[in-house]
Design goal:
homodimer, about 220 residues, alpha/beta, about 40% helix, DNA-binding
Chain lengths: ~220, ~220
DNA sequence: GCGAATCTTGACGCGCTCTTAACGGCACCG
DNA sequence: CGGTGCCGTTAAGAGCGCGTCAAGATTCGC
């Protein structure tokens, strides 16, 4: 779940924002001055920081600069000042977006979503699957068996990828054939038999007695970690 | 160098922006309607797209959606409409920022820098790569092999850069072609073969039997340190 | 405007992958 | 006990993808 750090010296605004954001399903952490904001950001992983520039203890751009020393968390700046020099200063200090008060809540939320979206698709989630006989890194498209890299052909990988991303779930033959070869091949169950045998030969310790790439007779296949 | 794609139906604005941006050292490409904007974006790699919502041929959000089908390039929206629903719509369609006209040029440039900064530092972590046969400094764009500097052409470097920044990760042919030549060249696998051979000749100790620039048949290439 | 470096494009041979067919084993059922 | 699907296995031909080379086109620096 995404955690939003809200920093504003006005407790009313903080509370109002917190309620709204929680209503959107975000986890919310708050701070009312620069020092505690930096401290909070260091305490736990934060997805986005919403920062008011008018803080009592330190200048807003100073907070941004300090945070940027060690963190790349997206910063959305709120400010009452409309002057463009303020905006330029904040943005060049390392902020990612800037809204002037008064602002529309829906606009704030939309900009928040934009920041979160970009953050999420740049931070690649590491998808690793390990079993007793092989290890697969779905991100790198790499499979190793007892320390050795296992070469996969495109078709082999396509099938394996689908199965590994759905552990314990039954994948019907039609699903596999449609995903890999296209809808026109939905009845060519032969292909699957050939390639499942190939995959087992490469990945199972005992290909004739598979433990992870399981056949469900009459239905399809299932990957069991 | 960063390439900015400017899209606006008013030629005056396009020219004014182009001059300003070129003055900042950016490479500028322009378009005056949605279709040609999408086409331009597909022709070459673009760092940021500046998009006016009031285009003659298609709705602004439609342009965003169409672009997001295959590209993650940051989009900065310009619009004359102040309504918050317009902003929400554009941002949720996939835009990254939204400025209403009239806007301050310095603010636009600052927001542009913010977008470029995030795009560039999202992948800048490892700058030195060493293998048994060559050493590369990704910051300085310098490669040495057994003490000797190796000259790289721009295209060669672009390819190498992507591979080196993703060690052990399989990069598909489409990814490479899209990043280096632009999405329009996604099927010109010939180019890759020529340039991979070139890179191997320059970097591998045994070009015919590569140890670091590995081909994954039917899929793409992989850099193995 | 000229020369050199770089990029684009086409052709060719080889190896690997995909496709396809045939056969045997197994379980279920009449 | 014989029949019928369904699955696993194997093998072989076809076709495609890759590496390689070379020549023409284009860009870039001087």
């Amino acid at each position: 779940m995404n955690t939003i750090l809200v920093v504003d010296d006005d407790p009313h605004i903080v509370r109002a924002l917190a309620i709204t954001l929680k209503g959107q399903g975000y986890t919310v952490v708050t701070a009312t001055d620069g020092q505690s904001a930096l401290h909070s950001a260091a305490q736990r992983p934060v997805s986005v920081m919403i920062l008011d520039l008018g803080l009592p203890d330190m200048d807003g751009t100073a907070v941004i600069s300090a945070l940027r020393e060690w963190s790349t968390v997206p910063i959305l700046v709120l400010s009452a000042r409309h002057g463009s020099s303020d905006k330029v200063e904040a943005l060049d200090a390392g902020a990612d977006d800037y809204i002037t008060k008064p602002f529309g809540l829906d606009e704030l939320l939309a900009r928040l979503r934009a920041l979160l979206r970009r953050r999420n698709d740049s931070s690649e989630e590491v998808t690793m699957v390990t079993t007793s006989s092989f290890t697969a890194n779905l991100d790198k498209r790499q499979v190793t068996k007892s320390g050795q890299d296992v070469r996969m052909t495109p078709t082999e990988w396509n099938i394996l990828d689908i199965l590994l991303r759905n552990p314990d779930k039954l994948i019907t033959q039609q699903q596999l054939l449609t995903e890999v070869w296209g809808p026109a091949y939905a009845k060519e169950a032969n292909y699957l038999r050939v390639y499942m045998a190939q995959l087992r030969r490469k990945l199972e310790t005992e290909p004739g007695n598979p433990r992870h790439l399981i056949t469900e007779p009459g239905m399809g296949y299932r990957f069991v970690p």
